[in-house]
Design goal:
By secondary structure, this protein is of the alpha+beta class. 16% of the residues lie in helices and 45% in strands. It has five helices and 27 strands. The strands form four sheets. The chain has a 19-stranded mixed β-sheet that branches. Strands 1-4-3-2 form a four-stranded mixed β-sheet.
Length: 402
């Protein structure tokens, strides 16, 4: 009997340790806040985790909840926002973007040869690739043309650069080099704009707002998110497709055009570009935006345009779901299964970012990245993340305008 008790005690201890360990792993992997409808809690679709035991606050908008493993083991407390699913129009149409940065971004520092000497004033002053120069001697810098003009105005005297680096404002003093004929340089290459084509994810008919891409626009040289001062939305037309192959991403080849949607961009952030349109880009009916816990593995569809026609629905499989809040644009792993799309593109290609992902007649996400070595597979972002970020960015704009 004693032996049985000892063995049972050890077994129970091992089980408890495993359960607690699993709880810790799940606690780190699952988000700390969820949105649910007023009718009740929504169970998560993976890990055997359910969301329950919550009470409404007095205003009925926020509440506390608990994640439970198998309805037995508590994982962690979470914040719950009670609201109805927002409804938007899924798009899938190509659109053009023209964007100017807030300041000029340093994409390269370079040496300067003058008087048979080699200078590198930018490097020596601590200027780094990816820095955004917003002012010179307290005067704003908006375009690449502003930089040489203001540097020449210094006549070789030290100038103070106001720089944004990692969302912090810093100052750097630099001494321009006279290269002859009263031409002064500081040894930086800069960029003030970007343009391209992407896929629109959703349109909100009541506000005329849109979201697209599913990820931010980054500088091609630095990889940094481009800080935006203003942006324009234009129509776009797909001319051809460069098929994807293992190790080489394909692309949608197209150009900006006068036909199609028009509008402006208010934000370029981690989860996409957002703004407002002059008119509806497509004639689809609105559908609900899924809460993240409503998304499930299995069959789904994407809406995208790979020719000079209208957006089409193509079959995909959602292979896995990642709720980790640190992987904001890589919530879903998807696989293209549609034969027609595979024949056309061989998978996900550049330009398809932002293509809406539909499941159970809900907008659950958008395509964001392709696996370069396996182009039939890629990542997607939760549509709920895009909607939340749009609302936050819109609040910032309204606050700054007040």
């Amino acid at each position: 009997m004693r032996r049985f008790i000892r063995i049972s005690t050890v077994a129970i201890g091992i089980i408890c340790t495993l359960v607690l360990g699993a709880g810790t792993v799940l606690s780190n992997a699952l988000p700390s806040k969820f949105s649910v409808s007023k009718t009740g809690c929504e169970g998560l679709s993976v890990y055997g985790v359910t969301l329950n035991s919550y009470r409404s606050n007095s205003d009925g908008s926020k509440t506390g909840g608990k994640l439970m493993l198998g309805n037995i083991v508590p994982i962690k407390d979470v914040q719950i926002n009670i609201k109805e699913n927002e409804k938007v129009v899924p798009c899938g149409n190509p659109f053009g973007i023209k964007m100017f940065t807030k300041g000029v971004m340093v994409v390269k520092t370079d040496k300067i040869i003058a008087d048979k000497k080699v200078y590198n004033p930018a490097r020596d002053s601590g200027i780094e690739i990816g820095d955004v120069i917003t002012h010179i001697n307290s005067q704003p810098v908006s375009y690449t043309e502003d930089l040489p003009i203001k540097v020449n105005e210094s006549k070789g005297k030290p100038i103070v650069l106001t720089i944004v680096r990692d969302n912090k404002v810093i100052s750097k003093t630099i001494l321009p080099v006279d290269t002859g004929n009263s031409c002064y340089k500081i040894g930086v290459w800069v960029r003030d704009s970007s343009a391209g084509i992407g896929t629109m994810t959703f349109y909100h008919p009541k506000s005329s707002a849109f979201g697209g891409l599913g990820h931010g626009i980054c500088d091609v040289d630095t990889g940094n998110l481009l800080p935006m001062s203003q942006g324009e939305v234009t129509g776009a037309q797909i001319e051809s497709v460069t098929r994807a192959r293992s190790g080489c991403a394909g692309t949608l080849n197209g150009h900006h055009c006068d036909n199609g949607c028009r509008g402006y961009v208010i934000s370029n952030c981690q989860s996409g570009v957002f703004g407002y349109l002059d008119s509806a880009p497509v004639s689809n009916a609105p559908i609900a935006v899924a809460y993240k816990q409503q998304v499930k593995t299995g069959k789904a569809q994407i809406v995208t345009t790979v020719d000079n026609g209208s957006p089409k629905y193509y079959d995909i499989e959602i292979e896995s779901i990642n709720y980790n809040e640190r992987a904001k644009t890589k919530n879903l792993v998807i696989r293209i299964t549609d034969k027609e799309l595979l024949d056309e593109t061989n998978g996900i290609v550049q330009g398809m970012s932002g293509s809406p992902i539909i499941q159970d007649n809900r907008l659950v996400g958008a395509v964001t990245h392709v696996f370069v070595n396996e182009p039939q597979r890629g990542y997607g972002i939760f549509a709920e993340n895009m909607i939340e970020d749009f609302n936050e960015e819109n609040k910032k704009i309204e606050k700054s305008a007040a």
